[in-house]
């Protein structure tokens, strides 16, 4: 019975099954590895498996169950981690020949926190080279294997959409959590910059990078966020405020701003219709909506993002690049070259422009609680050499504000997922959770699962 219902499992429902002893940790982990064995050849979401270690941990958790009364939310939950996230004793190669065979001696903070929460690591998932644009892996979108799953958290999104895990870790520097979530019918809470530690995560751009988890539901996102978030002495960019846990609740007393800027007007007709329908649903639930425009500094902020990302990417890779540029993918070679040519004064000016845009964006939230936009301009593009446009996610990553991506429909021709993006002011993740959870109580897009297509390009 459990096997046929694998696609319907969530973190929350699995936790209840474990509590009721309807399934054991070893049965659960074994079930996922059997599913991976069947579908991984078609999806190609993973680079490394830890089956033996995972099963040993599952056995230990079965013994632990005999000694504790209440199982924590992530107890025995199987997950995957993007291959730029350090895992002690497990290869972490960042999708690049530069790190071929590299094995970290420590865990990233997020992995350590998941281990303390008794989650079970199944393996590492694919990424574009160093989580940058270009150097896409062979990973396929489970909804249609002839289409990209997005990037750079390609494998994390594809693995979860194909029901090979119950949540997966990823990162975002422009749109690398939000875009894959939208393309694969998933939910992702990208927290405020500094809410989740980046310690032990190979940087793409240190002042832009966010770490987060792809999940199937807002409820699951809350459980994972509450484990991952909080101050970390190993990451000085994390907020030093006390940890603030999120709650699953359905507060309706919010005003949502519908972004009407021309910047978001190139969404295709199906995407626009899906967002309109989603907004109507929110309105029917008692949420007030008003039209909103973003600051005029938006375009300048975007340009500043590109300068900052190129400079910080180049800074991180400069030594390895100087030794042997050919070890990098052609795209990343060019990206590093351009970054090395940018003057320090221009980098500092770009950071100042980012600060102006961030402040002006935050001013928008004086009149509304949340903003809503499409998560992407279109469904997942055909082909796997490119990972799609992060344009609709980039401004909010640039500003470091929290966002929530939710599935809101499917394209008619190829049945590819469509996603909505909610945006909040810094540290206002709870507002996102309130509206997102309410939306998912009244919709079922997040409950859909792909019928994997066996035909491969």
Automatic annotation (TrEMBL):
The keyword Secreted does not apply. Keywords: Transferase. The keyword DNA damage does not apply. Residues 27-432 form the Amidase domain. InterPro entries: Amidase, Amidase_dom, AS_sf. One of its GO terms (molecular function) is transferase activity. It holds the Pfam family Amidase. Belongs to the amidase family. This is Subunit A of aspartyl/glutamyl-tRNA amidotransferase. It comes from Paenibacillus naphthalenovorans.
């Amino acid at each position: 019975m459990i096997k046929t219902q694998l696609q319907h499992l969530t973190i929350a429902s699995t936790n209840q099954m474990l509590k009721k002893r309807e399934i054991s940790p070893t049965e659960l982990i074994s079930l996922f590895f059997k599913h991976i064995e069947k579908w991984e050849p078609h999806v190609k979401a993973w680079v490394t498996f830890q089956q033996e270690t995972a099963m040993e941990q599952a056995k230990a958790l079965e013994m632990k169950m005999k000694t504790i009364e209440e199982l924590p939310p992530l107890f025995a939950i199987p997950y995957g981690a993007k291959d730029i996230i350090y895992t002690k004793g497990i290869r972490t190669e960042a999708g690049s020949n530069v790190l071929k065979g590299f094995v970290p001696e420590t865990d990233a903070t997020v992995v350590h926190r998941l281990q303390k929460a008794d989650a079970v690591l199944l393996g590492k998932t694919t990424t574009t080279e160093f989580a940058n644009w270009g150097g896409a892996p062979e990973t396929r979108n489970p909804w249609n294997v002839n289409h990209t799953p997005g990037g750079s958290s390609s494998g994390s999104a594809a693995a979860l959409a194909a029901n090979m895990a119950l949540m997966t870790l990823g990162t975002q520097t422009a749109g690398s959590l939000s875009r894959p979530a939208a393309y694969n019918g998933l939910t992702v809470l990208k927290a405020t910059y500094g809410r989740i530690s980046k310690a032990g995560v190979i940087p793409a751009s240190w002042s832009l990078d966010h770490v987060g988890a792809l999940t199937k539901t807002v409820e699951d996102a809350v459980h994972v966020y509450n484990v991952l978030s909080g101050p970390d002495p190993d990451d000085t960019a994390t907020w030093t405020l006390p940890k603030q846990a999120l709650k699953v609740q359905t507060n309706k007393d919010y005003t949502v701003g519908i972004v009407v800027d021309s910047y978001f007007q190139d969404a295709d007709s199906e995407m626009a219709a899906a967002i309109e329908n989603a907004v109507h649903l929110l309105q029917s639930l008692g949420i007030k909506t008003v039209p909103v425009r973003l600051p005029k500094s938006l375009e300048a902020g975007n340009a500043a993002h590109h300068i900052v990302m190129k400079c910080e990417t180049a800074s991180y890779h400069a030594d390895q690049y100087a030794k042997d540029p050919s070890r990098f993918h052609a795209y990343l070679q060019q990206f590093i070259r351009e970054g090395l040519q940018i003057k320090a004064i221009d980098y500092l000016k770009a950071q100042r422009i980012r600060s102006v845009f961030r402040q002006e964006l935050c001013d928008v939230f004086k009149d509304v609680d949340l903003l809503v936009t499409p998560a992407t301009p279109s469904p997942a593009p055909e082909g796997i050499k490119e990972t799609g446009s992060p344009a609709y996610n980039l401004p909010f990553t640039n500003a470091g504000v929290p966002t929530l991506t939710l599935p809101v429909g499917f394209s008619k021709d190829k049945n590819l997922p469509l996603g909505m993006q909610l945006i909040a002011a810094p540290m206002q993740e709870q507002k996102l959770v309130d509206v997102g959870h309410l939306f998912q109580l009244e919709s079922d897009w997040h409950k859909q699962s792909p019928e994997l297509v066996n035909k491969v390009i």
